[in-house]
Amino acid sequence: LHFPPLPIPQIPQEGGESSLSQLLKAFVSAGRVDHVTMVMGLHPQYLSSFWKTQYLLLRMDGPLPYHKRHYIAIMAAARHRCSYLVGLHMGEFLQVGGNPAWLQGLHCAPQKLRNLNEINKLLAHRPWLVTKEHIEALLKPGEDSWSLAELVQALVLLTHYHSLASFVFGCGIKPEEDQDGGNSCWPPSPNSDSSAASDDSIGGSGGADVMQEVEVLMEKMKLLQENQLEEEGVTQEEMATRFELEKMESFLVPS
C-alpha cells in the first residue's frame, strides 16, 4: 500500500506578523515581555483584547489610585495563592509609590481595603453567595466607605485577577527569571512550613483553612438535607428510590 505524504500545516504569515507586533507593543508598554504575554501571543487577537483590558484597568484614569489597583490585584491573586501574579504586582505596587508596609499582610493595609476581604473570598470561591447586602455594607456611609465608582472598579479588578490566576495555573506559567518565589507558581505543599498562611497573608490562605471551610460547608449541607427530609417525612427506602432515579436521569443527559 502507498499512502500520500501528509501535508505539513503552515502557520499563517499574517498571524505571525500580528503576534510579533503585539509582543513589541507589550515590550514598549511594560519594558518586558512577561510569560503570560508570551503564551497569549499564540493568539494575537486575544492578546490584543487582553492588553486593552489590562491597560484600562491599571493605567487609565479612574476612581482608584494606581497603587490601590495593584494592591487589589495582589489580594485577588493571593486568594488563589498564585505567586506569579502576586510577585508581578508587588513590584508594580512599589513602582507606583505603594507603601511597602502594606505588603507585610492585609492587617497592615488601610481598613477600606481590608473591608474587601470578605467579598474577595466569595468572588474567588463561591460567587453565587454574593448578595446585595455585601455591596450595601461596602457603600454604607462612613470614614472607610467606598464610592460606587470605586467599588465597581475594585470588583472588576478582583474578578479579572481571579480569572487570570486560573489562566496562569492552567497554562503552567512559571515566575519570571528575576522574580522571587522559586521555579514554580504552584501552591506550597500543605505539609510545608510555608503553607501555614491565614486570610491576612498576602501569599493567600493555607490549604488547611480551605479544607476546614469545605468540611464545615459539607456538614451544614448534610444537616440541612436531614432537616428537610425529617420535615417531609421521607423514609430511607424513598431516599434510595430518589437516588436511583436521579442516577438514571443523569445517564440520559447528553455530555
Automatic annotation (TrEMBL):
<dbReference type="GO" id="GO:0016239">
    <property type="term" value="P:positive regulation of macroautophagy"/>
</dbReference>
<feature type="region of interest" description="Disordered">
    <location>
        <begin position="179"/>
        <end position="209"/>
    </location>
</feature>
<dbReference type="GO" id="GO:1990253">
    <property type="term" value="P:cellular response to leucine starvation"/>
</dbReference>
<keyword id="KW-0963">Cytoplasm</keyword>
<dbReference type="InterPro" id="IPR029032">
    <property type="entry name" value="AhpD-like"/>
</dbReference>
<dbReference type="GO" id="GO:0005634">
    <property type="term" value="C:nucleus"/>
</dbReference>
<dbReference type="GO" id="GO:0005737">
    <property type="term" value="C:cytoplasm"/>
</dbReference>
<keyword id="KW-0560">Oxidoreductase</keyword>
<feature type="compositionally biased region" description="Low complexity">
    <location>
        <begin position="192"/>
        <end position="202"/>
    </location>
</feature>
<dbReference type="GO" id="GO:0070728">
    <property type="term" value="F:L-leucine binding"/>
</dbReference>
<protein>
    <submittedName>
        <fullName>SESN2 protein</fullName>
    </submittedName>
</protein>
<dbReference type="GO" id="GO:1901031">
    <property type="term" value="P:regulation of response to reactive oxygen species"/>
</dbReference>
<dbReference type="Pfam" id="PF04636">
    <property type="entry name" value="PA26"/>
</dbReference>
<comment type="similarity">
    <text>Belongs to the sestrin family.</text>
</comment>
<dbReference type="GO" id="GO:1904262">
    <property type="term" value="P:negative regulation of TORC1 signaling"/>
</dbReference>
<dbReference type="InterPro" id="IPR006730">
    <property type="entry name" value="Sestrin"/>
</dbReference>
<dbReference type="GO" id="GO:0016684">
    <property type="term" value="F:oxidoreductase activity, acting on peroxide as acceptor"/>
</dbReference>
<dbReference type="GO" id="GO:0071233">
    <property type="term" value="P:cellular response to L-leucine"/>
</dbReference>
